[in-house]
Amino acid sequence: MPSSWGKIFRVSTFGESHGDSVGVVIDGVPGGLQFNLTEIQKDLTRRRPGQNLLTTPRKEDDEVRVVSGIFEGRTIGSPITLIVDNKNHLSKDYENLRHIYRPSHADYTYHAKYGHRSHVGGARASVRETIGRVAAGAFARCILEEELGIQTIAWVDSIGDVFANITDNLPKSHEEVDANDVRCPHPEFAEKMIEKIKEVRKIGDSIGGTIRAVVRNVPPGLGDPVYDKLDGDLGRAILSIPACKGFEIGSGFEGTKYTGSTHNDEFYLEAETGRIRTRTNRSGGMQGGISNGEEILIRAAFKPTATIAKFQNTVNDTPEDVQMKAGGRHDPCVLPRAVPIVEAAINLVLVDAYFYQRALQPEWLATWKRK
Amino acid sequence: MPSSWGKIFRVSTFGESHGDSVGVVIDGVPGGLQFNLTEIQKDLTRRRPGQNLLTTPRKEDDEVRVVSGIFEGRTIGSPITLIVDNKNHLSKDYENLRHIYRPSHADYTYHAKYGHRSHVGGARASVRETIGRVAAGAFARCILEEELGIQTIAWVDSIGDVFANITDNLPKSHEEVDANDVRCPHPEFAEKMIEKIKEVRKIGDSIGGTIRAVVRNVPPGLGDPVYDKLDGDLGRAILSIPACKGFEIGSGFEGTKYTGSTHNDEFYLEAETGRIRTRTNRSGGMQGGISNGEEILIRAAFKPTATIAKFQNTVNDTPEDVQMKAGGRHDPCVLPRAVPIVEAAINLVLVDAYFYQRALQPEWLATWKRK
Amino acid sequence: MPSSWGKIFRVSTFGESHGDSVGVVIDGVPGGLQFNLTEIQKDLTRRRPGQNLLTTPRKEDDEVRVVSGIFEGRTIGSPITLIVDNKNHLSKDYENLRHIYRPSHADYTYHAKYGHRSHVGGARASVRETIGRVAAGAFARCILEEELGIQTIAWVDSIGDVFANITDNLPKSHEEVDANDVRCPHPEFAEKMIEKIKEVRKIGDSIGGTIRAVVRNVPPGLGDPVYDKLDGDLGRAILSIPACKGFEIGSGFEGTKYTGSTHNDEFYLEAETGRIRTRTNRSGGMQGGISNGEEILIRAAFKPTATIAKFQNTVNDTPEDVQMKAGGRHDPCVLPRAVPIVEAAINLVLVDAYFYQRALQPEWLATWKRK
Amino acid sequence: MPSSWGKIFRVSTFGESHGDSVGVVIDGVPGGLQFNLTEIQKDLTRRRPGQNLLTTPRKEDDEVRVVSGIFEGRTIGSPITLIVDNKNHLSKDYENLRHIYRPSHADYTYHAKYGHRSHVGGARASVRETIGRVAAGAFARCILEEELGIQTIAWVDSIGDVFANITDNLPKSHEEVDANDVRCPHPEFAEKMIEKIKEVRKIGDSIGGTIRAVVRNVPPGLGDPVYDKLDGDLGRAILSIPACKGFEIGSGFEGTKYTGSTHNDEFYLEAETGRIRTRTNRSGGMQGGISNGEEILIRAAFKPTATIAKFQNTVNDTPEDVQMKAGGRHDPCVLPRAVPIVEAAINLVLVDAYFYQRALQPEWLATWKRK
Prior knowledge:
Four copies of one chain form a homotetramer. By secondary structure, chain A is of the alpha+beta class. In chain A, 29% of the residues lie in helices and 23% in strands. The first copy, chain A, has a single domain, classed as Chorismate synthase AroC (Chorismate synthase, AroC fold). Chain A is built from nine helices and 20 strands. In chain A, strand 16 and strand 17 form a beta hairpin. In chain A, helix 1 crosses helix 3 (130-148) and helix 8 packs across helix 9. The longest helix of chain A has 26 residues, at 335-360. Chains in contact: A-B, A-C, A-D, B-C, B-D, C-D. At the A-B interface, strand 1, helix 2, helix 6, strand 13 and helix 7 of A face strand 1, helix 2, helix 6, strand 13 and helix 7 of B. Strand 13 (244-249) of chain A pairs antiparallel with strand 13 of chain B.
């Protein structure tokens, strides 16, 4: 179960929901960097369950601790290990699921693949695995902010059929996004989304939605233009988040309806800065898999949570047809908590592309590194 | 410019449109396999330009030759190298583009990244790079067909605003898809798509579209469920095809409007076979990043070709604002030729997942290998 | 600081001597395997300091705990994380070394490389890092023993100028090796080696030595014959153990004096078994980087421990010339404790080669897997 | 058959002696570098067979051509592909070996591993494979010379029992080494070595030997100190050269006889330069797997060529016991031709370590890059 990511800034997560803890090892870390645990805890807190009524009532504080890689507040080049203990896992709650394959969960596929599985809380397929990604992503965020001034902001753009569809006046801060429980920066639509989630929760059901993200201040030149295209790597990183079923960069599926003459992003010389810019941004901030200096624009689709409090038909591992109804405490909608996970995925891809680029083209770094 | 792919069945492409040839090295190849060059040539011929009036009039026969890895018709475990010579490259045709960054092409981003670029025919960003992927993908296809009975079929599902939207009666053979020039297996919509392409070609413009693909007979258990999820790897592979801007697995963006109770795929026991099946397939053939034995269902978005025969504003490398109009011979629509490239991407991901799975779970192989 | 190893069975260690714990994440683990923690603890106990008077008086019990990857005694395919806490680290003991580069230690090079370092107990360069390798290696050993019947035995072959030079009647069990404190299976030479170590310890000095290893029952066909040759991978694994300065396979340096006619290993057909064997084994169990079924024979050189209780000239990080004398508790000779580390390195290389081979050649597995 | 090397500067070779050509793809190449084909040809010419009477009489000019990655004399970031055609392969010469496993060759192990093999000229196990490494190594050499002033020189240090044992007055140029046919810079010993080779050649036999190498001007800080130690990576690279059976760094096996007080390299401050130096260099230029700025000192053992013109006992693939005598034209001693291969291996390891270091620690680059 390869659980690693990145060519240079290499992230490996470990841990299951049934075990004692989950965590991450980050390798390929420069020495001498300030390490700010508060920043990492901040992102984990945005991700944690039990934040408000829209998410699962499971309360987990997800407190992170540093196991290796830091000395007197700074990195020493060693692998950084961060661990969050599992405090709230009630294995007995899952005993009735020991032999059952829950619909649209990974129970059956894990069993088919590995021959032996844990039935407790999703085990490795639990969204708790993303704790490691978010912790590592927060560290990546600090590096990108500090060295290049990059800012990554994601938000909930739709819940069910409520589409805010925010393509102008994109949010400028995480505070703007976090101003309401659903993490949609458009207050009116946020209200409707919250209604929609409460509605499905009341009947024991769940609902899907979409997330958009913008990344600002990415210098031109990040991304490797054949298989490791920036869009391909971003797509893979986001599609590897549980429940993600779709990914778009720039104009995405809508752009397929255009002609070349209406879709192309014409270049122009920005008078004030002397920089090469595009007037439109249907490319979503990259061409040929390499960033072009414009905002990176991403959209991702998340299916409704598979766990619902309703009777469903399924099979067990005998195998025989059975009926089941999930107990437990689950999110009626993963979207609000997925926002920091999407940001982490983006920042992990970008920091790795950045390190790779400065390996090959150090003179590039001199041009683009933040003064 | 990392140009390699795969954990075990490892594919590395090389070559630019301005050079003498393009090619691929395939490593991680079992010894003793029959090597059928005709099958590889078949896929390359489906990809080649100049096939019909819908594609570029450049005629390239794209004849492949074997440089290494084969002895007396079978593999010997060595890297297999396949090369296609560039016969039709007219570097002089591009002299007027030496200093110009074409809109929505990779000229500017390559220059920003590497400091030195070739202006001839897109160089490494040319779709000719995909020859290597298609050649390797054809070999992957043969292994998957032979050993697991897997069948991968892609088709053009929309051109511009003409949507065939084929979700039932999916095509059963490549012949069905290739029955018309646009590679849409629905004859009526194919007709409309062909009209649309001729229309934009007439005015020197281009048009985008979408491709769908189905993969049949994938055994449960392929894919690695954290970062190397099967959907993530398929997404990355397809998003790394030039001009691709979006990717969906199963219900994709549409699925975000559903509730859990209407989206979940209930399991049942198939009486005749004793196999565990799902009644619906909104998951698109995988759960938790692992194949579940149902058809894999994919959709991908391709933007309109950036090269158009119209005046456009842009900048040169001085830099200064300039106007340009492309000469040369180009595809008004890449979709028909992208069909075999999408199939190659899928087959490359699957063969690698298959080899990885049999490394870890050899008893799985005994169950699922085709008798 | 890349800290990972292996193409499929992938081992990543983390932790420094100054931190709370050291550990290892093992990825690429098959599901469904019995996981025997006792076997892992056994190897860690062979490696731990304070075993007897020949090693450091620091007492560390090196008790291992499982953090992830195991459910009800068997693997589930997830990354296995194993952690050993650092109980006996006295950071204050090292305060006088904060600014000093100890001769032939990694203090200066770490500082030159990363710009910031920990001066406590060698930090990441401490031999404590090898705990993770030994833990993972023990798990690899169990897989190799169970599935292929492979047996890996290392022993101390020389200390200083006392050479046992055991090339016949190689030890048949770990018990035979562990029969004395220096881990040399020749009792007479063992006695002399022990004397030698006591002698240097008395004067606050240290001493080097060599280790030999034999691996039995390796089936023909392991190892990848270009850059990932089995000898190359074994060499790298062993040379990456702290203090290792030399590596030989088979006839090694001595073999360079031979002619082809006296060095070649002639093949013959073993009458009883029908197996292809060699009469001599100067190749050391492999040809062209691939195992040939004969015993793998390895020799490795370890320099004397750099830490000694004598005044030495060196520089500090001002930098200026200074004198220093190490306090602390250290091994006068690392060889006895290096024996299980060498075995772990070998087993990690072999299990990865084994998994890779069964990925590519599953029919090979059918032939060679232990009945 | 993984045939790739390096984390960033990634080298993949392909081709067999029986095929049309051998070659190499180099990926992870910066854009904008001057590409000097003459320098590459120079190293290939040092490696080629038929140079003088000490090597095989097969004449191969090994002329290299560039297939991709270069535009108008400079790199463009794309994979660089270099190919040398096989002009002198006489497959018929090998027909009598079709079913025979030659002693101490890789015939049997390839067959055992892959199930199907080529019997022609060693196929992939032929030393012709190293053409790709030498070509890529020459490019690495140019980068290291140009950017860091690094100089790598190897020489033949012994042939059979004739040991020059050059540890002082190490050669200062390739010309010094190439002054005689055996590539030993000590004229007197060179004479004896040449005699020894002529002697074994006369009786159809072969002979082994050792190579030493020195690398100058390596800045402190290269190498990754856990599994990717500089000594481990150099060891693996050199042990993966055909016929290599042993590797030492610094004091090697001899150093095991020392005590810590006589082996440690004391640091001192070099008055003229302000640099931190060591008075002795038993460490061989690295500590903890990281370069320390002193000369890197390497020694490698090469067994006698397995091909000899004498009758030998062996088995065929029936299998049954047979006798054989090699025809063909072979090196009585590989050492002189191995000199440039060893240098290539070293330079490939160093350039990759250099690129990795500048990815992580760009400020390091500013300090150490040659003015």
